[in-house]
UniProtKB/TrEMBL annotation:
Gene Ontology MF: a single term: 4 iron, 4 sulfur cluster binding
Keywords noted in UniProt: 4Fe-4S, Electron transport, Iron, Iron-sulfur, Metal-binding, Repeat, Transport
Biological source species: Bowdeniella nasicola
Protein name: L-lactate dehydrogenase complex protein LldF
One BP annotation, GO: lactate metabolic process
Domain (4Fe-4S ferredoxin-type): residue spans on this chain: 324-394
Length: 490
């Protein structure tokens, strides 16, 4: 690593080293400005989405079609991936396979070096964020410039994304203005000194800052929303036009694509072109849809590379229940409807995939070795709103329960206060005499405490984890058994 970074540094530390969700959420809730930003943004997006979806009379049929197509892909993923490789190669693209983040980063770094480039321009890509490609390129003295407006805000703010679709959702326009004024000049064309916080002015400053980077970059890096096995085509949908610049101007184009992004035929794209824009940006259609099929002489990049990324996806595929998470098309509808995400934001999840989908996707892609991944399946109220809005009908709440079971199973046999309490409870309930004695003791305690309070306050550890956050009512003074006996004796 060079002493002076080529690009703005994100916060230090590996995401898997993040604190457990409850601790991280508690800290994020304390950010009042962020809570206001999140409330405004998520409620605005969800209302617009509801209106856009209501326009489509066969919306549920489209959801079912998207689910069916994705399920067919997952059942036959090996076949479609081989077909995709053959189609891409026939079109003049070079296909690379990456088992994990380290392999993918090494492949991309070597390709950029082979192109004799010292910088790259990037289309917004969750896959490259997942493998921390920017940091890997920085290690090799290669500057990676984010060109999506929200990603640019995050990068210049030495920050991490907090939303799949709107990475800077936790920032308001006044904060963005300060970031542009302080940071742009250090990494290229500075922002005008009289820059206002008007969205049009902020977008204009970003456009001017990025123009030189677009014009001089010889390598572009992208992800893909879809990869079509039949034709060997990749599809990127976006709203700003920066993606089109990255995909067409550079001589070399490198696309990092998760293996679950494959679709069987070009006709299948029609379904997702209706589901994705309405679910994500609440638009009838996205402003820019770029489709490229390898190399086209005289049009676009002359060197096209596709890196097909596993990085834990086959682990998820091996779980008959968990694999349903791989249907995700990264629309972020579940984030915008989630009452938990609305309060804490994306940073509490310790991953580039936050919200309900992140709570089921991260533990499957990364495993549950880290404290944050063990806690994520519990980062939900299980209200089920995410199930209702998912355009490909992922049963997110059911998968959260499924993964909670896996986390609990992994800890069986490990001594803990919870296990001791459950064992004690089992002993009491195994004999009616012990249960009746416990109920009598509970009733006597309630009578005594009832003179001073109507609820149970903070109790010592480990029960404090429950009582510190809840007003627990006093147990009834009379048990059902006692009431029943009295009725029988009458």
């Amino acid at each position: 690593m060079t002493e002076h970074r080529l690009t703005p540094a994100p916060p230090e530390g590996d995401l898997t080293d993040s604190p457990r969700f409850p601790a991280a959420a508690k800290a994020e809730i304390g950010n009042v400005q962020q809570r206001k930003n999140l409330y405004h943004a998520t409620h605005t997006i969800r209302a617009k989405r509801a209106n856009a979806v209501a326009e489509v009379p066969n919306w549920q049929e489209l959801r079912a079609a998207g689910e069916a197509i994705k399920n067919r892909v997952l059942r036959n993923l090996d076949t479609y991936l081989m077909q995709l490789e053959e189609s891409l190669t026939r079109n003049g693209a070079t296909v690379h396979w990456a088992r994990d983040a380290a392999e993918a980063n090494a492949i991309v770094t070597d390709l950029v070096k082979a192109a004799q480039a010292q910088e790259v321009v990037k289309v917004k890509s969750m896959a490259t964020q997942e493998i921390e490609l920017n940091e890997a390129l920085e290690e090799a003295d290669i500057a990676a410039w984010e060109t999506d407006l929200a990603e640019l805000i995050v990068q210049l703010g030495h920050d991490r994304p907090s939303h799949i679709l709107v990475p800077a959702i936790h920032r308001n326009r006044s904060e963005v203005r300060e970031i542009f004024l302080e940071e742009m000049g250090q990494y290229g064309t500075p922002a005008p000194p009289d820059l206002s916080d008007d969205p049009a002015d902020l977008a204009g400053a970003a456009r001017t800052h990025l123009r030189d980077k677009f014009m001089r970059a010889s390598v572009g890096i992208s992800g893909a929303n879809f990869a079509i096995a039949e034709t060997g085509s990749l599809v990127v949908v976006e709203s700003e036009g920066n993606g089109r610049m990255c995909l067409t101007l550079p001589e070399t184009l490198i696309s990092v694509v998760g293996i679950e992004k494959v679709l069987p035929t070009f006709d299948d794209v029609e379904v997702f072109m209706q589901l994705l824009p309405r679910s994500s940006t609440a638009e009838r259609m996205n402003p820019y849809t770029s489709v490229w099929s390898g190399v086209s002489e005289g049009d676009g990049p002359t060197n096209v590379h596709v890196v097909l990324l596993d990085n834990g996806r086959t682990n998820a595929l091996a779980d008959p229940a968990g694999r349903e998470a791989l249907r995700c098309i990264r629309c972020s509808a579940c984030l915008n409807i989630c009452p938990v995400f609305e309060k804490v934001g994306g940073h509490a999840y310790g991953s580039v995939y936050p919200g309900p989908i992140g709570a089921i996707l991260n533990p499957q892609l990364r495993g549950t070795e880290s404290a944050v991944d063990k806690s994520l399946p519990f980062a939900s109220s299980l209200c089920g709103a995410c199930n209702d809005v998912c355009p490909v009908k992922i049963p997110i709440a059911d998968l959260l329960v499924h993964l909670r079971g896996k986390v609990v199973d992994s800890k069986r046999g490990t001594p803990s206060a919870e296990a001791a309490m459950m064992k004690a409870g089992s002993w009491v309930m195994a004999d009616h005499a012990r249960l009746e004695a416990a109920q009598r003791a509970s009733g006597l305690s309630s009578k005594a405490l009832g003179r001073f309070t109507d609820h149970i306050g903070a109790l010592p550890w480990p029960i404090s984890k429950w009582t510190n956050a809840r007003d627990v009512p006093l147990p009834p003074e009379q048990s059902f058994r006692q009431w029943w006996q009295e009725e029988e004796d009458k």
